[in-house]
Write a structure and sequence with these properties.
single chain, 97 residues, alpha+beta, three-stranded antiparallel β-sheet, 2 helices
Length: 97
C-alpha cells in the first residue's frame, strides 16, 4: 500500500499526495460546496472522508483499482497508443481497461 498524505489550508483545496515522492496525486478533492475542514483516511487507506462547516460528510474512493475502473468507464474503454503518447508520454505504453 502506498504511503499517502492529505493537506488542507484555509485558502487551498484539500490535496492528496504520495509521501515518498512528495508529489500530489491527481487534482484536489472537489466538493458540492463549502471548504473541506476535516479530511481523514479510512483504516485501509482506500477512502478519504471529508467534512466541513457547510459540507456534509463526503466519501472519496481513492483505491487505484477503483480509480482506474472509473476512468475507463468515463473514457469509454482503453486508450489507443496515440492517445497514450499524447497524454502519458513519459511512460511506456501498456494496455488499459
Amino acid at each position: 500500500m502506498a504511503e499517502l498524505w492529505l493537506s488542507r489550508t484555509k485558502r487551498a483545496p484539500c490535496n492528496c499526495g504520495d509521501l515518498v515522492s512528495n508529489q500530489p496525486l491527481g487534482a484536489p478533492l472537489t466538493t458540492p460546496g463549502g471548504a473541506i475542514l476535516s479530511p481523514a483516511f479510512s483504516p485501509d487507506g482506500n477512502t478519504v472522508y471529508a467534512a466541513g462547516e457547510h459540507l456534509p460528510l463526503q466519501k472519496y474512493n481513492i483505491s487505484p483499482e477503483r480509480v482506474a475502473a472509473d476512468l475507463c468507464k468515463r473514457i469509454g474503454g482503453a486508450l489507443s497508443r496515440d492517445d497514450w503518447h499524447a497524454y502519458i508520454s513519459e511512460a511506456p505504453y501498456r494496455r488499459t481497461c
